[in-house]
Amino acid sequence: MSAAKTSILHQPKQVWAVAFASVIAFMGIGLVDPILPAIAEQLEASPTDTEMLFTSYLLVTGFAMFFTSWISSRIGAKRTLMIGLALIVVFATAAALSGNVESIIGFRAGWGLGNALFISTALATIVGAASGGTSSAIILYEAALGLGIAIGPLLGGLLGSVTWRAPFFGTAALMAIGFIAITVLLKGDDKAARVPTKLSAPFRALGQPALALLAITAQFYNIGFFVLLAYTPFPLGFDAMGIGFTFFGWGVGLAVTSVWVAPLLTARLKRTTVLTVVLPLLALDLVAAGLFVTSQAGLVVAVIVGGLLLGILNTVLTECVMEATDLPRSVASSSYSAVRFLGGAIAPPLATTLADSFTAATPYYVAGGSVLVATLVVALGHRALRRVNDGAEAPAVEAQSIVAGAVA
Length: 408
Description:
Blueprint: H1 2-9, H2 13-30, H3 36-42, H4 47-75, H5 77-96, H6 101-129, H7 134-160, H8 166-185, H9 201-205, H10 209-231, H11 233-236, H12 240-268, H13 271-291, H14 296-324, H15 329-357, H16 362-380, H17 395-403
Helix pairs in contact: 1-7, 2-6, 2-7, 2-8, 3-4, 4-5, 4-6, 4-15, 5-6, 5-8, 6-7, 7-12, 10-14, 10-15, 10-16, 12-14, 13-14, 13-16, 15-16
């Protein structure tokens, strides 16, 4: 254990460059959360209009995921990372300079394209360059993911308290630093390691029953994820700083359970058992958010508890995808991630539409029902998912397959 910890802290410079850029990339998911009410007020947009900032970003990210393995297998990891970062810099800057919500929605879509190219390649790059073995590299990556998700809302709140444009400018500046770091520190040409994949491979992969079941599970689960993340700022009623600190707590909880609690659970229980236990707990948490929708304290507690549960689910679902098939990880994770993000894209505007048509609590109840559907998919498909419970692969096999793949 001490050796693993030491190896995590003593990594080559190129690993830290990609890890730093990963933190910034995942900050983009929650960055706009604290400034949604401010954008709606200052740009005279409806809540549903502002929720499209999430939808355009997630929709393009999900669609692009179908093609990222095809691209990276031809131009290489370094170029894919650099193109992704460059696109985020350009479109984040453009969003900051926008004068209406429609323009921001469009630029967030371009941001989503850059994000898809980056996150689909970052894990494989870290695994390929990290010291201490595959498990240490994955822990490092998950730590970067959790840190980014935690910092995003906090940075959005801090900068958003000055102006809603500041978080976009801040992200562009940090991504530019990440671009320079990868350009300088990520050495070598990975041309020899490239194995071109077919354009149709991610679509055909969904014909695998286990992968299709996991993708459907993640799609319904992500509706709950993004109702909690994207809709809650409106009933919460805090200013940008209050929203930022609330979702900072959410992100910290997510990071802690994804890196430490999820491995403890999967070491003692089957992965499908963990999913069928924790998914209903998330559904109950969403119902509780609906019941306490008029209580700021109640909503804050529901958000933080939700973060703790989401961290477990994110990690276990990712592990399941890695173990579910013999497909190259780049192909399997592209297919799974695409469906997952497309599910998330539905949730934000659906939530505000339901709130306008019924009550402020309705989106949480619908999200809870969606998470229960995800639970049923896992429970009814347990035979097709038997392979994900077989345990970890031999280290050499696991390393080879993950290096060939991308983030799920």
